[in-house]
Amino acid sequence: MSKTKKIAVISGDGIGPEVVAEAIKVMKRSEEMFGLSFEFEHGLFGGIAIDEKGTPLPQETLDMCQKADAVLLGAVGGPKWDNNPQATRPETGLLGIRKALNLYANIRPAFIFDCLKEASTLKPEVLEGTDLLVVRELTGGIYFGDKFRRETEQGQEAVDTCVYNVMEIERIARQAFEIARTRSKKVASVDKANVLETSRLWRETVVRVAADYPDVELEHVLVDNCAMQLLRRPSSFDVIVTENMFGDIISDEAAMLTGSIGMLSSASLGDGAFGLYEPVHGSAPDIAGKGIANPIATIMSVALMYRLTFGYHEAADCIDNAVKEVLDAGHRTADIAVDKSKAISTTAMGELILAAMKK
Ligand code: NAD
């Protein structure tokens, strides 16, 4: 039996609790199968925390996450809180938890299950072989720089400042090169070095870090070109590393190659093994409470946690293989079903994946 790992569970709002429940069942099954041991602690986060504690990120939830080995997050938000002031919006909790836990690297794999190619808006032959991973810088750049408005003779002017320092670029570049070593040893660094000073520093720094990884091939791609190439030749990318705002846009574009947001997992990492794992999708208020959400993104986030935080590769493969087997057998939740009348529920999908988990 391996040492007990503490998992902070923050299910959040909408479909968050529904999909997290299935992911926890998968973790419990893998405890039995692989001699793993987890201790789950649950905390309030997002809209539900605003209702019960008056803040999206209560201090006790943050303390619980800081003491944990990894965090499993569902999703936050919903129309009920959309008109709240900034401080009491669920999304403010998301930015707050990333910053407080120093989670500066967001990792999003995007790959195509053969049997789901039809669900994408791109032609199957363009998607063939697509298996990429975006490493996005998460705590710097224009989202965190000074923002203000001022009066000018031409009327109001708004300013957003983009700032990056060498340390911030170096650490995200290292994450990308380390991950590339576990994959096909290719990194595409995405910037706008023909125009932006922050991008020129980004490129210089990435080149310097690359010298420590001579086994990894590095290419530089301008962000506008990257946006095009992702649609034209997605399979030519492996690891893409980029700054915060470019990564926000590029990772959503890459995500949509796969057809459904209900299939995509993500990790947010800092220094060391600790990480926060969550599906890419939001709280889906339109389907919350109906029992029809796709739990696969959250279940595959557990596989990412096993790989990136705990090094439980065998258990991670077991989960990914079980998901593939269930999809290959034709089982679909409504978001990925061609024939919606045959779609199965959240819990039915969870049960099928549990049954398909084999050593
Ligand atoms: P969303 O991802 O919640 O939903 C977009 C569409 O995808 C909806 O039609 C929804 O039904 C569908 N969908 C999403 N996940 C699904 C799943 N697992 N299975 C089946 N269908 C699924 O995005 P949105 O509607 O723009 O946002 C809803 C709320 O979620 C907002 O309050 C937003 O701020 C929040 N949000 C939170 C996060 C997060 O917690 N990290 C991320 C994105 C959006």
UniProtKB/TrEMBL annotation:
Coiled-coil spans in chain: none
Cofactor descriptive note: Binds 1 Mg(2+) or Mn(2+) ion per subunit.
EC number: 1.1.1.85
Subcellular location: Cytoplasm
Sequence positions that bind Mg(2+): 224, 248, 252
GO cellular component, one term: cytosol
Biological process per Gene Ontology, one example term: L-leucine biosynthetic process
Residue numbers binding substrate: 98, 108, 136, 224
UniProt KW keywords: Amino-acid biosynthesis, Branched-chain amino acid biosynthesis, Cytoplasm, Leucine biosynthesis, Magnesium, Manganese, Metal-binding, NAD, Oxidoreductase
Pfam families documented for this protein: Iso_dh
Enzyme class: oxidoreductase
Boundaries of every Isopropylmalate dehydrogenase-like domain copy: 6-353
Assembly information from the UniProt record: Homodimer.
Membership in a protein family: Belongs to the isocitrate and isopropylmalate dehydrogenases family. LeuB type 1 subfamily.
Function: Catalyzes the oxidation of 3-carboxy-2-hydroxy-4-methylpentanoate (3-isopropylmalate) to 3-carboxy-4-methyl-2-oxopentanoate. The product decarboxylates to 4-methyl-2 oxopentanoate.
Name the record gives this protein: 3-isopropylmalate dehydrogenase
Native source organism of the sequence: Paenibacillus albiflavus
